[in-house]
Design goal:
The complex is a heterodimer of chains A (117) and B (112). Chain A has 117 residues and is mainly β. Chain A has no helices and eleven strands. In chain A, strands 2, 4, 5, 6, 9, 10 and 11 form a seven-stranded mixed beta sheet that branches. Chain A has a four-stranded antiparallel beta sheet with strand order 1-3-8-7, with no helix packed on it. In chain A, a hairpin with a 6-residue loop joins strand 4 and strand 5. Helix content of chain B is 0%, strand content 52%. The N and C termini of chain B lie far apart (41 Å). The model of chain B has no long low-confidence stretch (mean pLDDT 92). Classes of the chains: A mainly beta (117), B mainly beta (112).
Amino acid sequence: DTGVSQDPRHKITKRGQNVTFRCDPISEHNRLYWYRQTLGQGPEFLTYFQNEAQLEKSRLLSDRFSAERPKGSFSTLEIQRTEQGDSAMYLCASSPHRSGLNTGELFFGEGSRLTVL
Amino acid sequence: AQSVAQPEDQVNVAEGNPLTVKCTYSVSGNPYLFWYVQYPNRGLQFLLKYITGDNLVKGSYGFEAEFNKSQTSFHLKKPSALVSDSALYFCAGHNAGNMLTFGGGTRLMVKP
């Protein structure tokens, strides 16, 4: 399978614990995005990378959230001191990006569902 | 700021009938518009996009969408609905920027 993969698919944790999600994008895609989706809502942008550089972060990304893409391939999203309000589906997407050609189509993984008790 | 609105939380249609899922946008400059579909506990799947050119765009699974600049709309359509089309549909857009902004989603229910 050469799509975007995310791990774990489901995570249940207690409030105050730290969690980390991993995303492996499509191999030739240089852009990687994280979105958050709560039940019945549209995805909300969190952050994105071009190669290893984190180029934009949403105000939704509090200081408890950190994302990395150390070698420009896979990415991790860590949430520290989880709160019940962090319960959501965390979606990763990737896209190819070439100068002068950015149609913006994103390829999504199946998401990592976080439940904070 | 850019935004995308889907005015209907749910659309109900009988199998075999035409369906329309509405979307309006507020995007500065030339909009890039997309439709995605989401099945339960799954990620989003790309259906179609409008970048430039013909206002009627054809996509996957027999879906199409019509870009209307004067009405700032990008409604999703299908001539004959299938029960298997039942899912959550999201409209999204950007202006050649760096991130997609999504609408709140519309649940499509196709009844046999």
